[in-house]
């Protein structure tokens, strides 16, 4: 059973909808409520109306960069844990924080 308590709320920002759906399904299986966004603009809209325990961010996003979103989360949502994901084979230019 999913509880909408902040401890179970996850924001997933993934630019490929089929990957977001698959990941959200897995998270739901483990009891998490997962809201998905395909880019920074969608994520910012969700952040205006919800509080999340964790945010899972794809390194490549539509709109603002993932670095922008990390900065926003740190400034306005410091309670949200940030997890970065990527499929990039070479992480020389990947997001680090």
Q: Ends: how far apart? A: 33 Å
Which sheet architecture does the biggest sheet show?
Answer: 4 strands, parallel
Strands ordered across the widest β-sheet = 2-1-3-4
The residue ranges in which pLDDT falls below 50 over 5 or more consecutive positions are none
* Morphology call: globular
* Count of individual beta strands: 4
Percent helix: 25-40%
Number of helices: 3
How do the SSEs run, as a string of H and E? EHEHEHE
Mean pLDDT, to the nearest integer, reads 85
* Rg: 13 Å
Provide the structure class: alpha/beta
- Assess the beta-strand content as a share of residues: 15-25%
Quaternary organization: single chain
What is the topology?
Elements (H helix, E strand, L loop, with lengths): L8 E5 L3 H13 L3 E5 L2 H10 L4 E5 L7 H11 L4 E5 L12
Parallel strand pairs: 1-2, 1-3, 3-4
Describe this structure as you would to a colleague:
- By secondary structure, this protein is of the alpha/beta class.
- Helices cover 35% and strands 21% of the residues.
- The chain contains three helices and four strands.
- The protein has helices at 17-29, 40-49, 66-76, and strands at residues 9-13, 33-37, 54-58, 81-85.
- Strands 2-1-3-4 form a four-stranded parallel β-sheet, with helices on both faces.
- α3 links the parallel β3 (54-58) and β4.
- It is globular, with a radius of gyration of 13 Å.
- The mean pLDDT is 85.
